[in-house]
Fold this protein.
Amino acid sequence: LDHDTGNRLRFQLELEFVQCLANPNYLNFLAQRGYFKDKAFVNYLKYLLYWKEPEYAKYLKYPQCLHMLELLQYEHFRKELVNAQCAKFIDEQQILHWQHYSRKRMRLQQALAEQQQQNNTSVK
Amino acid sequence: ILELLIQRDAEFQELMKLAVDQGKIYHEMQLLEKVVEKRDNDIQQLQKQLKEAEHILATAVYQAKEKLKSIEKARKGAISSEEIIKYAHRISASNAVCAPLTWVPGDPRRPYPTDLEMRSGLLGQMNNPSTNGVNGHLPGDALAAGRLPDVLAPQYPWQSSDMSMNMLPPNHSNDFMLEPPGHNKENEDDVEVMSTDSSSSSSDSD
């Protein structure tokens, strides 16, 4: 029973942790404290790749973290994350991308509204 | 002399016969050669056709194999449409992958877990030394990385409360170092780090 509880706990902890990797500021934090230089930590990041499997991925609320996890497998990326500007850039791009669909939807709505207006005026 | 002449004539006649025979044979030879040539052409033609057929079959077999591969792949990834819809709803309703329509700069919501969410999660609550022994080196490490204060908070949906008991993370090994010794030492370091004071973790940029 203890083993099961331990596994459940470990599952939840790893689920939380892997999603934290979607936060570029957290990554910057980890980089600055040298975690990315620790071989054990790097191995851990590789181990976390199991979250890409569908039976695990379905528990992710922030699937974007998987992209970050993939990038983190590269040493170059890990090194770059020490810079605050790097993290800021990633953050900005993430937010812009996050807004992509909202903006697209708003544009569609605007286009639709304009079209309806045109139809109304032409009918008259 | 007449005899000689007759002899010569006879010889000549024979030679003529021979020549005619040879001519016939030569003629036959030519016919046969033509036949042989025709047969050669037939063989070449067949050869070409066989080659073509082989090529077509090889292509067909290859494409069939590819098709089979993709069928297998599709079958492996088969997911019920209901699950996909449920998942899509889950990640979009919470604004995890698509910004809320009313979002403006200054809104604290983000496409990733924020400080607050991280602190109120299980990781954040793991700061108690008493629970340190349950897991090995790394979740505690990550926790130390967060340096999160002990906060009691409601469960956020991103922590999957609907998880089944059978979900096990693979490779249950607490040792991620290449060399096995030093394992205990890591735990010691762990405890040390846990007891240091909490500095502020990553700050949100607005």
